[in-house]
Structure formats: structure tokens, C-alpha cells
């Protein structure tokens, strides 16, 4: 097959995209008549994609309004959700109605940290231990050097993990309104080059990453120590409201919660909720987030308590929610519009976005659980989720 054409002088142009579309047609016989339709200037894409050829159009619906009583997100929001799954937007909207009529969802960002975890390998464990002590003693110098590469990133601490003669250093940064993976990689590399210049005794090998930062995948260390934003959404639902809106009871939801906990435990799941990934993925696509981060962001925890009067306390905790309101895909045309609808585009908005995502997840969990216990789950999908064409 022919190589896809590239223009080294200006590859982000309508002409370059059209040339690649023609190559695809010639080589495969498939006309990209829909892929080739887009409304933005390709010149805005450097840094987001290579070999730009067209777009994948994913339908967007708005759920809501969602009422949030956060420290950063306060008021009502229409939530953009890009998905091809019927019933999804309707289900989240139903959960949003329930929580809105209950007075809104309380949201709290309780931690903020992004990591890179280089590994240092020594001749023996004693050298590795002594190196760890040296790192602790010289943290202030390491911090200053790491922060030379970034205006937004700040090194808060370095965790250490030892195995045999190996020692991982988990550099933990705050990253402002960016998700920060690239920022953190650059800063950590810069600091490690300085560390290597000090010629640690007994060092045999160094690598900037060796899978301990668990980028784009879930890990227990992220669940315990945070990656991205650790955020909680919670609400207490009046018994009468649960019955009138969801056609079930707090007692039924609580019983289902205990059964779901057991099922998740038996299956070895990293999430005891129903479908965190649905809401997070739909919002990530609509709002220009790195969708691969759903692997980490969707691993979370649900907790429920039945009150003596029949009211139901419900919370979701997301320990590794990786979101941004600046950089990456957030400035792309449609993604920026969706962020602007939420009032979450630009600097100083990332905690607000994190709170809205967590509140949205809570609504989806409540709606699906209610559909299961009231036997509306299958019927709703049959009515809204079947593409009959």
C-alpha cells in the first residue's frame, strides 16, 4: 500500500487532509464522505494529532440541569455527554432530577497530585536504602531543580518504594489546570539528571519510568495515594423523594448496595460501583480530556447508609480523576464549547470540573441502581437503547 502523503512545510491544512483522504479511497475503495466533514481550522491541531485526515463524529447530548453545592462548582449545570449508548443521557438526567429536588450534591476535592516514578537499581539493597536516605535529605534541592522546567508544576513530595536492590521514587506534583503527565515527565527527568550527576554509590541502572506510576491503568497505589484529583460527591436523599422519582425505597437501594459490594469483591473488581466509566467517558470525549485516562479515573468507590427515618446517604469517591481545563484537547473547537457551557474552560477551573464530573457520576450510579431494583433497567434500554435501523 502507498504511504500516506505528508507535507513537511504545512501538514495541518485542508489540502494535506484531502490528499490523505484520496489515498485512503484509492487504496481501500472507501470514500470518507463523513470523516472529511469538519468545521474547525486544521491549523489548530498541532500537538493534538498527526496525519490529520478528518473527524469521528460522536453525538452529544446534554443531561441536567445538575445542581452542585461544591467549593468550586456551585449552582446548576447542563452536562455535555458524548456517547453512542442509548438511555445514557436519559438515565443521568433522571439521577440529576432526583438529586436536584433533594437540594443538590455536595462535592469536595480532597487531594491533587500527578506522578512520574523513575527507578534506580543498585548493586545491592544496602546501597538502595542509603540512596533513599540521601534523597530525603536533599529533597529541597531536588524540588528546586525539578521546578526549573515548569511554571505551573510544584513538587510536593517524593514517595519511595523498595524491592530487592531496586528503589522507585514516586515524584508527586501539583500541576495547575493541566492534567500534567508531560509536564511531570519533563520535570522529573530534569531532577533525575541532576541526581545522576551526583553519582550515587553503587548505582547500576536508571530508567525514567518502570510502570510504577501506572499511567493509563488502574493501580492500588493510585487508589490509596491519589493520581490526578481525589474527589468525593455525596448526598442524603429523603425517603419520600426516592419513592416519587425513582419508584423504589432507600431500604431497597441499600440492600442492593450490599449485594453489589459482595459481587464486586467476589469478582475482584477495582470498582464497587455500577458504571463510573459511562459518565466519565462521555464527559471526557465531549470536554477534550485524554480518554485513555478513564482506565484510572473510573476506578472508584461507592458508599451508602440507610438512615433510621428511611432517608438514604450516598457517596462516590474517585481517587484518580485526571482532568484538565487547560492544554491538551481542551482548546479544540467543540471541546472548548462544551467546557464553556460548564464554565470550566481556562485557568483556575480544574477543581470545578472535577466536582462536576464526580457529581455526574453519582447521579448515574443512583439512576442505574434504582432502575435495577425497580425492574426498569431492561425496559428502559428496550425503549431508548435499541437502534432499529
Automatic annotation (TrEMBL):
First-tier enzyme category under EC: oxidoreductase
A Pfam family the protein falls into: HMG-CoA_red
Keyword field: NADP, Oxidoreductase
Gene Ontology MF: a single term: hydroxymethylglutaryl-CoA reductase (NADPH) activity
SUPFAM superfamilies: NAD-binding domain of HMG-CoA reductase, Substrate-binding domain of HMG-CoA reductase
EC code(s) of this entry: 1.1.1.34
One record GO biological process: coenzyme A metabolic process
Similarity-based family: Belongs to the HMG-CoA reductase family.
Name of the protein: hydroxymethylglutaryl-CoA reductase (NADPH)
Species: Agitococcus lubricus
